[in-house]
Amino acid sequence: MLKIRNLQSGYGKIRVLKHVSMHVDPGEIVTIIGANGAGKTTLLSTIAGLVKATTGEADFKGTNTLKVKADAIPALGCVMVPEGRQVFAAMTVEENLLLGGHVLQKQGKQVLADLLQHQYERFPILRDRREQLAGTLSGGEQQMLAIGRALMSKPSLVMMDEPSTGLAPLIVKEIFQIIVRLREEGNTVLLVEQNAKAALGIADRGYVMETGKIILQGPAEDLLANQDVQRAYLGRERTEKQ
Amino acid sequence: MKKILSILPLLVAVIGLHILTSATDTMYYLTQMTMSAYYSLLIIGLCALMGYAGQISIGHAGFFAIGGYISAALTTRSLIPYQDSFLVKLFDSAGFLFVGQDIYGDSLLVFTPWAACGIAVLTAALIAVAIGIPVLKLKGHYLAMATLGFGIIVYRIALATEYFGEADGISEVPAFVLLPGLSVSGSFGDRVQNYYIAWGLLLIGMLLLLNLMDSRVGRALRGIHGSDEAADAMGVNTARFKLQTFVLSAVFAAIAGVFLTHYNGGIGPSEAGVMKSVRYVAIVAVGGMANLWGTLLMGIVLNFFSLRGSFGSYDDAVFGLILILIMLFAPNGILSINIRSCLRLLPGRNKADREGEV
What we know:
The complex is a heterodimer of chains A (about 240) and B (about 350). Chain A is built from 10 helices and 10 strands. Chain A is α/β, with parallel strands linked by helices.
């Protein structure tokens, strides 16, 4: 579904991503883990067209997203849930959701109304708060709104940037359950996380990034069991039994 | 449909004011109400740009002046010296020109007001596109400065060009006959019909914007206001929406300029002045930014008092003061003021009372 080859990008003269290659297959949750500044967010932003790539390609269902303007990418079916939620604070919950369906203009009002109902079923709390301004929601509710807003465009790939940031552990658990449910409904998710343990816990496959490079990749269970990953990101050293 | 119902009370108020002034023999108020309506047309257009899309413009008096000046010049400056040129013949064969007489009885070859209006509004729209494409890439203070620069350029051009009458401006602008028997002019007998023309135009503009802002377009604009990048990530073509709104508001300003110029029978460089642009921005802020009704109300009220001369020579100072007060005490606009919370701030109630509420 998404194939990234030899991607390099950065900000001005600063090169952040160095020859990144990876892929996402339909129906799987793929996670990218790594420490602060490893380039995870830059990778997502580059795929979403918000950061210009210098070389490489990101083939999404036959289109190179690096050659497409940022605002045309959601229409292809690739949508991002940005870091820090970025909900439109001065708009109501419902308006936020409807704006998420912006690219579906040609499909008519009924499609939009059905999708809206679908999100309310998925996140009942949003239905209760539909007339409330998004800026007044709690962090967890905002995260749900950001996910619901992204799903309003009927994406085939959802890219999530650190959905657990700044949320209480219980809420994080809930958000991750939602991501698992998205896969059960047939969605494909590319998940960027610092919370490596939780991310690998639900993912099918994972990539480990460090200083702009992918240093490890494999099935999630393998990465969870990997000694280097454990030491660097999971915060515990395996003590060999004697 | 719902929107048509929502402007009905305004329609009733417009008719009511006419009846009230004619009953109390104060019909002269209608003159200022007519002019206020035209200024408010510009201001609600600016409200869509500033309040909804979040793009400031301190140059909208420039678009007003472009509309007014071009319309005034084309309908007063005789083309007889150039009547053999290809362009003039072309306009003539298109029916854009007619032969008239000036006040001294000399014959004139000028544009018809309809043609002049079309050319003026089209020019304003084209200039808005040309200015908007580079300028709307800027944000915040930088956008404010760039549009301010544009406003100053228009003002200076109006002031320095002989064709536009330099400091005197253009006078003797003829009436704009919309339909036989219905004309925009300052003549005494046409006062009532001009009041309804101005308000009719304003109501149509209002209806258009109310519908637009409540649609997918309005949501996209408010998304852009919230965050350009987040709107981009939702698939909103931010550059295009910003430009379209900028052009729409410029067209509103130019139409207001054309009509008010015909109504006043002339236009002077003060209409292009920077303080005018600042005033329009102030009124949008006072109205509550993303609030068309608040903006309309404040546009009418403040312009009316200003035109009546209520603020005397301190006109611009009053607008500055209003802007400061609103920003301090009612940053969400005058309609958002909560009377009760204001009363609570007043002295007189004892301290214990106030602490109890915390």
